[in-house]
Amino acid sequence: MVFEKNSNKKVIVVGAGFSGMACAIKLLEAGYSNVTVYEKNANVGGTWETNKYPGLTCDVPAMSYTYSFERSPEFSRQYPAWQEIRAYCRNVSAKYDLNSYIQFNKEVAEADFLDNKWHIKTTDGESDIADVVIMATGVLRNLNYPDIPGMGDFAGDLVHTGKWDESLNLKGKRVGVIGNGATCTQLVPAIIDEVASLELFQRTAHWVAPFIGGNPDVSESQRQALRDDPQRMQDTANRMLKSIEKMVDGILVDTTGQTTANLKQQCMDRLGEIKDPDLRAKLTPDYKPGCKRFIWSETFYPAMQKENAHLVTEGIESIEPKGIRTADGKLHEMDVLILATGYRMHDYMRPMKIRGEAGVLLDDVWDDGEFALRGVAIPEFPNMFMIMGPNSPLTNFSVIEVAEWQIGYFMPLIEQILSGEFLSVQASAEATKIFNDKLIASMPDTIWASGCNSYYLDKNGNPNVWPDTVASYRESMKTADMKEFVVRWEDRESKVS
User: Fold this and answer.
1) Phi and psi dihedrals of 319, rounded to 5?
2) Distance, CA of 430 to CA of 409 (rounded, Å)
3) Which residues pair with 109 in a beta bridge?
4) Residues pairing with 311 in the sheet
């Protein structure tokens, strides 16, 4: 049976980052124009709109960090600076006229499912109603501030990298940096020659590998050749993605351990270039490579060997007006304190208050840990889909590819709602439990459960990522198994058999 598109039915997309933009594009391409996107920022791009700290670059080859339907060669380097990723987002938005559907500076505060509709309220008090809601809020949403006594007592400039103050003057300043993940390894080399001194407070060392293929410039003639041959550009991006996929799979499921061994050797070779044996030892991790997200950098170790760079491994006891007091009693005085402490990865849509059937609050449903069916749907929350939800692949693979797979998975369900075939559809509680029980059971055998403390782990210590190959997740996203959903028609509901 063919169902007509119902222009009266509406879709609300929350977020205009890569995922939300892709949702809007696919809905418009399918002929649904009654779409509103709510974006808390002043422009598209999500994390690439909010982040602008010195040294910020894309750590996935840029051509593969684009939509499969909108590849672009307009990047000056293989791993370009943030401005070029932001420009790509804005160019895509302009090409597809997305700004006509986006309400900027509008943050959703509440979403309630009442009478088979989603009732939305924004933080400025406005409201809206939709038949379907897509949560494309991303995981790099809420800043993570460390719980350190005296955080508010510091008398100097304090800034989080995710909320960078571009007017901040670091020249000749004594700078402290807390956090040594991917952000830190980009930030430190970018500011080390400007500051008088830099103290990096390290809790855990990270495995730092050289960029895959280096980070060469891409000449104008190379870019023009790709513009002239779109198929070549697509093939190049696909090869890049295949290379990353092979690496990710090798870390996770390669029983020979060869991939991990090769990556570890590359990291050890770089560590071997550090002349000071004490510094080298402090920067050498004591856990298996891949347990935390791999970091790529050509410049971090050279920066940390400069005379004005100092690595501090003593634990932080408190923050005082003049600086940081470490557990050995020493006060590290500084003018500027930078928090490179990332995001609360397991917040997902929080602090939004989302109420599903019978007013059930998502915060209560997730009180014992976040879960979803295949990362996109939650029982008791009909006609709501999410992108990059719990147990989505979140390692070094391109999240844009994963988002496209997820959109392709739930779009047929949305079309059946908008066409009038379904009144509502939601994940089956039974299917969701079976799915998540299998995931949890498989986690102890993964690299993420091998003994380190990473942002992959939820509050129960369970890795909240996909525990199998990239290909297995891609395959699972091809077609929704309707036996895993509960469908409601006008006067009845059923698990589809």
Assistant:
1) -110, 130
2) 20
3) none
4) 200
Q: What 3-state class would DSSP assign to 36? A: strand
Return the residue matching tokens 């008791």. Answer: 380
Spatial CB neighbours of 273, under 8 Å, sequence gap ≥ 6: 301
Tell me the CA distances in angstroms from 34 to 118, 132, 300, one per residue in order.
Answer: 14, 11, 48
Please enumerate in sequence order all residues whose Cβ is within 8 A of that of 231, keeping only pairs 6 or more positions apart, or say none. none
Instruction: For residues 45 and 398, give the distance between their C-alpha atoms in angstroms, rounded to a whole number.
Output: 15
Structure tokens at 129: 């109603």
Whether omega before 54 lies within 30 degrees of 0, making that bond cis, reads no
Q: Give the per-residue pLDDT at 199.
A: 98
Find the helix or strand (DSSP H, E) in which 92 lies: helix 82-95
pTM of the prediction? 0.94
Supply the pLDDT for residue 1. Answer: 34
Query: What's the rounded Cα separation, in Å, for the pair 36 and 7?
Result: 13
Collapsing DSSP to helix, strand or coil, 339 comes out as: strand
Query: In angstroms, rounded to a whole number, what is the distance separating the alpha carbons of residues 55 and 82?
Result: 8
Look up residue 172 and give its DSSP letter.
T
If DSSP codes are grouped into helix, strand and coil, which group holds residue 208?
A: strand
Radius of gyration, CA atoms only, the chain: 23
Whole-number Å distance between alpha carbons of 173 and 359 = 52
Half-sphere exposure of residue 72, counting CA atoms within 13 Å on the CB side? 20
Please choose, from the candidates 441, 406, 442, 457, the residue with its C-alpha nearest in 3D space to the C-alpha of residue 23. Answer: 406
**Cα angle value 293/397/37 (rounded, 5°):** 110
Distance CA 16, CA 104 (A): 9
Most confident of 168-177, 243-252, 438-447: 168-177
How long, in residues, is the chain? 497
Query: For residue 244, how many C-alpha atoms fall within 13 Å in the half-sphere facing its CB?
Result: 25
Structure token pair of residue 1: 């049976």
What the block records as the tokens of 159 is 């800034």
Cα–Cα distance, 237 to 235 (Å, whole number)? 5
**What is the average per-residue pLDDT within 466-495?**
86
